[in-house]
Amino acid sequence: MNDRKVIVKVPASTANLGPGFDTLGMALSLYAWIEMSESVSGETSFQLYGDGMDGLPQDKSNLIYKVAQLVFKEAGVKVPELRIAMYSDIPLARGLGSSATAIVGALVAANALIGSPLSDQKLFQLATELEGHPDNVGASLFGGIVVSAWDGSEAQHVRIEPNSRLETLVAIPAFQLSTEKARHALPSQIAMADAVFNVGRSSLLVAALASGELGLIRHAMQDRLHQPYRAALIPGMAEILERAADFGALGAALSGAGPTLIAFVDADSPDKTELEGFLKGTLAKEGIDAETLWLSPCTSGPVVTVEERPVSSGAGFGDSATLLDRIKGEIIA
Question: Could you tell me the domains of the chain?
Fold first, then answer.
């Protein structure tokens, strides 16, 4: 038996950043933790903590279990029964990469459990195939800002270190919006002028983030590919994107498929309280309750802790300390 326990801390992510549809992502200082070990009892078991976890499968149809088995198959190893625990501060179906976090966390944990035979680049390929696009998984796996492209068979990426002055404010509405529903709102074709507009803005945004020209972000985060079509799904969104800069934001965007909205802010800005009030107030006018969080870009990918116990002890790790006990002090709740 592999008497090893792995705990992986994975950052949330925001995708698109406005114009970079399915290509730009940034890791954020909001986290999920996955604990994985080979089952001592010979049966797979789950401990899932956090909001929204009650409805997730607690059998072998669970995403984390299935992703782990994919890693084992890729590495030519068999670990059929697992003990899995997860806690997440990342709200589900809100546009903060909760599914990507689960995929990346499961990939990294399963890989570490068997001695890390797969490279990060291989994990990135697997994660992109599972998620269907590379932006969220790339950010959660590599940290920082990730520019990526995927042709359906191979994903490429470049990582950018976030400027030390860059901070974000997220407004998380109290309702879920599935990625599938948000994608269904998009047109099947777009005008050439809109495509050219987004290529220019996305290129400008990458250059601004890479060079530290934060003053360009306001212009560079404009988008014509997805945000105008999704605005109807999130009352107040259009006003926030249009006016956030008037309240001190460097720029604003829909976070991933939404409904979370994200504003980029200079950490030294004197207008933070006013901006936060504008976001909450605009959504409140539409009858939407929203939680706001100030988050920094997360500059690292998953943090992995591996605990070993001599096989001769025969006792396994047991349940004396739960995952919540181990991460107490780090979680938001």
Answer: 4-160+298-320 (3.30.230.10), 166-295 (3.30.70.890)
